[in-house]
Design brief:
6-stranded antiparallel β-sheet; 510 residues; alpha+beta; Cupin-like domain-containing protein; 16 helices; SAM-dependent_MTases_sf; Cupin_8; single chain; Rossmann fold; tRNA methyltransferase activity; 14 strands; 4-stranded mixed β-sheet; Jelly Rolls; 3 domains
Amino acid sequence: MKFADTNKTNSSSIASKRSVERLYYPNEPHFFRFFVKKPQRRAPLINRGYWLRLRAIDVIISDGSLFVDIDYPHLMRKKRAIVLQTPQLRDLLGTGVTISKDDNDPVLLESAKYCQLACDLRELEALRRTLDSILLLKDAEVLFVAEVSITYMDTASADALIKWASGIGQDHPFAKTMLRHFEKLNTPIKSVQQYPTVDSQRERFKDRGWAQVDIWDLWEAWSSSVFMTSAERMALDQVEPFDEWEELMLFGRHYSVLHAQASSTGVEDTAMEKQAPARSVNKQTRDGFFKGLYCGGLRPDGTLNLDRYTWELDIAKEVVVAHECSDDTEKMDFNSKNFRYVTDQFKKIIEKIQSGGRLYIRSLSTDNPTDQPANLENDFPSLAEDFTLPEELAFVKENLFSSILRISGRVNMWLHYDVMANVYAQVHGSKPTPTSDLSVAVNIFFRDLQDGYSTGRDVYGNRDLAGYEKGRQEVAKIAKSFGQLPADIRRFYLDRLADELRQAAGGDGL
């Protein structure tokens, strides 16, 4: 890039900063106005981006410090002329101002608080001599602030400057050196091919003698409390409306701010979670599908919500009782009772099931497990909100007897004949083919008969119909009445009675 091209970017940048100064700093002194004769209001995206650039290199200089301004000789001479011709700027210099009469003199202006040096940063020896003529570098605490300046230098010269600056004042016990470096990827610059990423810029400075290097792209800086508070971000919206967040993010991803210190603080580096550059928001992308829990979004202060949320089941530590197969079989039989009861924390039971354990959990009534049937709506109200029957099954809900949560592992169960009609909803896993995965189901029992059910307590809903229970008693009496007869005669007459019962079952004679 030629000097003329560099000057164009410099003039454009100052005009953009003047636009920001007019809008965003109404209650502070305006200095850019002396360098921009005809101010132009930039677009909101440019204003917000340049406000962020200014904020990222906002440096507070303590009273008594010397500010040394270094730039190309032709630019610095132009700047000196504006300062000397502007009373508001010249008055800031105070007394004892020395102005060089020779334009070839690198020290163009010198005062107790401010100096102007006309130097090409590529000429390190001339730069060192000029700095030594106004201060003792070896005894000074030096803070370097470089905005874009080394971006337009050739890579070798920029790297040499970085290495040279890292050695200034490094023996001083309190010396700290900071270099804030912005790299603008959408302009022709000479180091982007060799240092294209934030990580490569960090290593660039470390390899050249800087003990500690922190770097952010400008979008990270925008979102970081290191640079500004949430209230400060939201206050910008009072200046001008802004809704170009995707473009601002894209803008910010193309700049970086770097803080380097010659001495380490002893604090370990923090890894940035950044795996890939930002995609262009105006390019067509393929359809994608997401399954899971999506949280986040844009906060009122214009930062992305990247917080990670974790949750733990409320009943994870509660103790529960589960059925566990005592035999190495997938069939759990409640008649032969080939299982045992195990008591453990709910979380551990689930972990055993997910590891292939042959366990089964059945919910009971939370309020009164010995007298009342289970009811999902009462026992697990938060789950019940996610489980609703369709309107076509309204009859089921109207005649509800119980709703049971069943959790099982690699096991099939035979419990008993289902007396009541029921609806079985498999929520997770598979009932017919047990696997090592978790099976979660809801079983809803309802009364589909007008009468005939067993009377008395029936918590599990597994008591047979009243007629059957009474019939079994009568059968026992009948069998007893034939007890004194020979076996063949007893069988003959009991078989005849059984045939009469079968005939009665086939008609409406009862």
